[in-house]
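Changelog note: in this version the structure field was regenerated for every chain. One regenerated record is shown below for reference.
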Amino acid sequence: MEVVLVRHGETEWSRTGRHTGRTDVPLTEEGERQARALVLSSPLRRALDTARLAGFEPEVRDDLAEWDYGEYDGVTTPEIREQVPDWTIWRYGALGGESVEQLAARADRAVAELLEVEGDVLVFSHGHFLRVLTARWLGLEAADGRLFALDSGTLSTLGFEREQPVIRSWNVPASG
């Protein structure tokens, strides 16, 4: 089991270092900004359902959808490798679907939007897409997403250390 502790946003008293016990002071404008998290989701049902079950009503972004697997949608890697023995999605993309470069373009648009937001953002999306998004966040090639194993039902955090984009946490189970 994990318990996530969230401290309230800034108040005038917390900003000025005043002890605030039971006095009920409101949030400042900055405190309200801190308390608002932009919530974004892929338009695909599994991502939207996850966001809604977690208590959020997200804004939908088509760019956050999973890789278009084309003719490989619903097919396993061993089945694909019967035709292409060394196949990986990272090397070949998907027959009749998206290439790594096309997915990278979507991820780049998503990263650009995220960088414009002041405050925190929750993104509900999919395994391969989030791996590419992370690679692009870090300034890596999209195919370097293959280096980031990502399980279902996990939380990962991207952020900064000083001005450097970094991974703050990765592949943490969302529930015990």
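Spot check on this record: The chain has a mean pLDDT of 89. Helices lie at 12-15, 29-35, 45-53, 77-81, 89-92, 100-116, 127-137.
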